[in-house]
């Protein structure tokens, strides 16, 4: 259990600071948890678990139990010190009541309770309480068990002693408010992904997750003594690594604790994930910049000193050295400053200095001690450099795609006449015949059509020179106007919506997956910022008594048949491809903004590491992991092709 008598680590009522009241949370929940969607619902659990992880970071907790209960409430139990129960001097109520009923109250705001802390928005327990039908907290400390209950943020009874114990810790059970959230059903897999990541980032901490709901019973336990070293091994699990050891750097500079782990594999894609106080930073920031510059400088210095690069040869670029890299950059910092519209980019300049200094020192020493590993890293980067040079002309095409003149646009693109990107959209269409129908059907002012011939290159299995030499990929890059990778600029995007329109069969699904793989690897911000969509062409056309209906699924067809009657006058056509529709039908069913169905492609930043592994599993070189994935997930697939 978490017991520690160190006087410098006191955690009493005096460490709880109050900043402001709670009234606004129920009125504007989105301000505090991001949204009232499923994502916001799961953030409630993360907030309570983050408090427990803070106890682990401070050295007082080594196990957290999370359970989804039979009634869909959630219980989180930790074996930390237990939230303080003494009377808070300013508030005149027990400190635990302050934590659960007053916004921005806790041991994270300079009150001396924690040096660093996680937490998604730093709002914590009080917001979870405000957005729950009911919440119960049970605290074990000083040999006693205390309990208090709240309903929609209001205290139901005063903190009371309910038993004796020889343990310490906090137990929180809450039921989300179904009048606030769109859906109050928790998803086990969403929680499982997040808690695996948390366990990787907090070495030695055991996180147990259990689903107790009837028919859904399952459980999992995460515990990684190797911490982020094991995280890197997990990222590389379906890949062939270039060397056996995971390179690990750890240390502290001033108040910043830095951990970095890295290992190269034989693929062509980079999977570097960065975290601040256990929270993912999908847009990177200063800590990531420090890591990249250290890796580039140390490896180039080594390559020069050991004659892997000749005097006249140019330096290896950061991209060259990060080809096939799996890496985790994790820092703990007392006062993180986040930048950007989504507050997902770390702005602290001192974080760059800390990471760059530590990685430079440790990596230099490691390469000197492990010349075979150094040779493997430099050798792969040199091959990447050659491919980059071969691709330079093609890369220049991508970089120069500001596209002021239509002369730069690909010949097969039927562009739209409106020049305001916010009003424009581009359909990427499989095949010339469907492309012809789409060109006839479209609204020429706002809808552009780019037909692609056949299946585009699988970028998971190709180097940059082959990728940028591929005509279909070149056409997409040029048409979008943003450039790719480090030259990507979202402000140059020529279309607000990029719509993938493929046949509703297995081949169509494969082509769409190839395109999404390309976007994810080379232009992920197109997906992150909500610009990528999948068109939903109908599966069926039903004609009866000179009337026409379109159905987008088997269920929808069944409903239409129930309405119109099932008899011999029904003429049902199953569409195998877009080419079977004439221009008018294609417009009515798939392209008319007033009638069409579009699916927006989204990335949940909390599961990007899982997404990276999924793309690698499905599109990479190794057959066995792909077979295992398909066998495990086949039961979830419906109506892929009939």
Protein architecture, described:
There is one protein chain. This protein folds into three domains: 7-223, Heat Shock Protein 90 (2-Layer Sandwich); 228-390, Ribosomal Protein S5, domain 2 (2-Layer Sandwich); 394-537 and 599-603, Rossmann fold, CATH 3.40.50.670. It contains 21 helices and 23 strands. A hairpin with a 2-residue loop joins β20 and β21 (547-551). It starts with 23 loop residues before the first helix and ends in a 9-residue tail after the last helix. The relative contact order is 0.08.
Write the layout of secondary structure elements.
Blueprint: H1 24-27, H2 29-33, H3 38-57, E1 63-68, E2 74-78, H4 95-101, H5 124-130, E3 132-141, E4 144-151, E5 154-164, E6 169-176, H6 188-201, E7 206-211, E8 218-223, H7 228-235, E9 247-253, E10 256-264, E11 271-276, E12 279-280, H8 286-305, H9 318-321, E13 325-332, E14 338-339, E15 345-346, H10 349-369, H11 371-390, H12 392-399, E16 425-430, H13 432-441, E17 447-452, H14 464-469, H15 471-480, E18 497-501, H16 506-522, H17 524-528, E19 532-535, E20 540-544, E21 547-551, H18 554-564, E22 571-574, H19 583-591, E23 598-600, H20 608-619, H21 623-633
Helix pairs in contact: 3-5, 3-6, 4-5, 8-10, 13-19
Number of helices: 21
N→C terminal distance: 56 Å
Largest sheet: 8 strands, mixed
What is the assigned CATH homologous superfamily of the largest domain?
Histidine kinase-like ATPase, C-terminal domain
Quick check: average pLDDT?
A: 86
Strand coverage percent: 15-25%
Oligomer: single chain
How many strands?
A: 23
Query: What global shape is seen?
Result: globular
* CATH architecture label of the largest domain: 2-Layer Sandwich
Q: Helices and strands: which structural class?
A: alpha+beta
